[in-house]
Amino acid sequence: MIPLLILSPLILLAALGAVWKARPVHAALLLALALALNAVLYLVIGADFIGLVQFMVYVGAVAVLIVFSLLITRPGDEAEEISRRPRSLLPGLVCTVPVLAVLICSISRVTTPSAGEAPAFSVEQLGKALFTTHAPAVVTVGVLLTAVMIGAALFARDPGKKPQTPSDP
Amino acid sequence: MSLLATTPFLPMKLEFLPRLPQMLVEVIFHRLGAPEWLVSIAGFIVAASTVVGVFMGGFALLSLVERKTLARIQNRIGPNRAGWFGILQPVADGIKMLTKEDIVPAKAEWLLHLAAPILIVIPSILALGVIPYGREWTPVPLELGLLFFFSVGALTELSVFMAGWASGSKFPMLGAMRAISQMVSYELPLIISALGVVMVSGTLSLPVIVDKQAGFHLGFIPAWNLFTPWGLVAGLVFYIAAIAEANRCPFDLPEGESEIVAGHMTEYSGFKYALFFMGEYLGLFAISGLGITLFLGGWQAPLPGLGFVPSWIWFFAKLAVVIMSFLWIRGTFPRVRIDQLMRFAWLCLIPMALLTLPAAAIWHFAGRGLLGWVTTVPLLLIPWVIITVIYNRRLSPSTRIYRFADS
Amino acid sequence: MTPLSLLLTLSSLLFTLGLFAVLTRRNAILILVGIELMLNAANINFIAFWRYGPPDPELTGPMFVLFSIAIAAAEAAVGLAIILMVFRHTRSTDLNKLDSLHG
Questions:
Q1: DSSP codes, C55-90
Q2: pLDDT, block means (10 residues), chain B with 407 residues
Q3: Suppose B172 and one of A140, B167, B321, C4 were both cysteines; which one would form an S-S bond, judging by CB atoms 3.0 to 4.6 Å apart?
Q4: Measured between CB atoms, does B169 come within 8 Å of chain A?
């Protein structure tokens, strides 16, 4: 419980920074920090496989992807300064505060018996379950990821030379 | 302790040499009547310090050995002024690095500029903790050891970006972009080639993977993963991807001196620069150690009769051979261009790495013997020939035509 | 406060923060940051219920989270590729500038 009480405010602070900071690279790096602390949270709870996968995929791939695209597009800070006006923030607050209220109210109604030890699972169990019970899902995700890779490569490709118009002098 | 006392033969007693500091500390703490958790924490700290200390010494030695080896390859002598045969050169380098002025550019973000070298060294040291160095001597024997290794490797990419961006100038940015694209591209063949080993060994735990490579075929060929058809291809792919992940020549485009000064390390001086080098060399040790664990049988002896030599000596001997081969390659190959690098990763290494997975499966189900070899060698050889032919036809430079000024 | 309710509160706050980012940010890439936060919050929920809820021999929690992480990575890749394509045409990632279909 104590590690959770230490980690949760840190994760929230990092996420707050990711959401609020005007400079995009700072926001992206704070997101990476929040995701990394989240991975530590998973490790502390006892879900070590998920924690390591979270670190490898979210921090190692998604965060790197985001900062790399920030390097390519080089956004300035002016746009985010403008979005600080209360008129721009009001719709956001109007939508998010009720969502938060609903979620917190439903949490207060959750009652489960307190669990003792972490339900440990071995990698063999996970592998067996993945490839026998959930094999269609794994194949679907594989096809999906291949399609994503090919699609992203096609999208981001250099468009090449445009054909010359014949009416140039 | 009792195991040490009952082992008869002196070379076999040397087996326990790496564990000696930890055993001594635990015995002392027990005699002082400390509680159990304190003993285990103290033992663990000593074991971790031993690993870090040994590899720091290795880093110092490697910096000298590299310069001497490169010098001999390039027909010169190398550092020989600081002490006998230059043996005190690492000390001189350390003093130089520590006493240099630490310059942080005015446009740089000092917090990220400071954090980046630290965050590059941390994954390398963490990764050194899960490698089995000897029989039953792994500092942290995790059940998910291999996954842990690759997860902490992912932190390196983000740190390189931080180093490049936080410096606030053009060369580091360019270097960081190149470094990230190179690392991301070559991480795929690295992980996929390790997957074949995981499939065949049935576990992610590195000590168990080494244990499964025990034994000898035909009496004298060790049952290492390198001496299987899929293992040969996967081992070569892993080797090349390891050179690229460690940003070493011929893949050292991110830090090529003749290209972009020092890439993402341009604006660093003094101890932070030394930390970058430490991170690079420790990462090299870690990934070579992983390659040895996965493909070369870890601490296993290469011939049946040599089991009396302590296991950690075999590990460090193999490590020395692999690192010397890295130095040899650095001295003899030219640097590749960024597009050649990317093309090589995506069009050659990744297909070959992917092919080792069905090859490993077929080899396993064909009984792991001669039938396994016969069925998997065509599966691996024919696509490789096709890829090589495509490379040679489309991508090799055509014959040059020289035009001289007087014609 | 039980660990379960602590984790559920954390995940709802993270979800709300991500939603706020999606609604108020102008840079397209920072909106993607918000989306990743939302997906992450849902993952925390699954793991919290797997760990502190009734025992489940079928490993539903980790399974779901594994697939969710994979799909989040895929969606980030496609999203960023689209943003880069749009950037090439309009030289800007500011979403308020993409109003050529405006009436």
A1: --TT-HHHHHHHHHHHHHHHHHHHHHHHHHHHHHHH
A2: 57 72 80 79 84 90 92 89 84 88 81 89 92 85 92 89 83 83 91 93 92 82 87 94 88 69 75 88 94 92 80 91 94 86 89 93 87 87 87 72 76
A3: B167
A4: no
**In chain A, which residues touch B (CB < 8 A)?**
25, 29, 32, 36, 48-49, 52-53, 55-56, 59-61, 63-64, 67-68, 71-72, 122-124
What is the residue extent of each domain of chain A? 1-82, 121-155
Average confidence (pLDDT) over A101-109: 88
CATH topology of domain C3-94: Helix Hairpins (1.10.287)
CA C28 to chain CA mean position, Å: 14
What are the residue boundaries of the structural domains of chain C, listed by start?
A: 3-94
CATH fold of A1-82: Four Helix Bundle (Hemerythrin (Met), subunit A) (1.20.120)
User: Nearest-CA residue of chain A relative to C55?
Assistant: A119
Residue C94's pLDDT is 78
Answer left, alpha or beta for residue B261, where phi above 0 means left and psi between -120 and 50 means alpha. Answer: left
List, for residues C45-75, the tens digit of each pLDDT value.
Answer: 999 989 888 877 788 889 999 999 999 999 9
- Where helices occur in chain A by DSSP H, the ranges are 2-20, 24-45, 48-54, 63-73, 78-82, 86-108, 123-132, 135-155
Q: Nearest Cα to A12, choosing from C49, C27, C41? A: C41
Contact A96, C23 (CB under 8 A): yes
Residue B350 to residue B357: CA distance in whole angstroms: 11
**Nearest by CB to B144, which of A52, A59, A64?**
A52
Q: Is the CB of C90 inside 8 Å of chain A's CB atoms?
A: no
Contact A75 C72 (CB under 8 A): no
Per-residue b or e along B79-105, where b marks 16 or more CB atoms closer than 10 Å to that residue's CB: beeeeeebeebbeebeeebeeeeeebb
Using the Cβ of A110 and the Cβ atoms of chain C, whether some distance falls under 8 Å is answered with yes
The predicted model gives A15-40 an average pLDDT of: 93
Q: How many CB pairs under 8 A join A and B?
A: 61
Give the rounded percent of residues in chain C with a pLDDT score beyond 90.
Answer: 55
Q: How many CB atoms lie within 10 A of CB B184?
A: 17
CB B119 within 8 A of CB A33: no
B215 three-class SS: coil
Residue A115 has what pLDDT? 65
Minimal CA separation from B171 to chain A, in Å: 13
Ranking A119-133, A134-148, B29-43 by mean pLDDT, the lowest is: B29-43
Instruction: Check whether A165 has a pLDDT greater than 60.
Output: no
Q: Considering only the beta carbons, identify the residue of C16, C78, C83 that sits closest to A69.
A: C83
Residue B46, token pair as written in the block: 């000593």
Given the structure tokens 């108020």, which residue do they identify?
A: C24
pLDDT at B84: 81
| pLDDT for position C96 | 77
pLDDT of residue C79: 92
Name the 3-class secondary structure at A84.
coil
Other CB atoms closer than 10 Å to residue A141's CB: what's the count? 16
> B341 in helix, strand or coil?
helix
User: What confidence score (pLDDT) does residue A83 get?
Assistant: 63
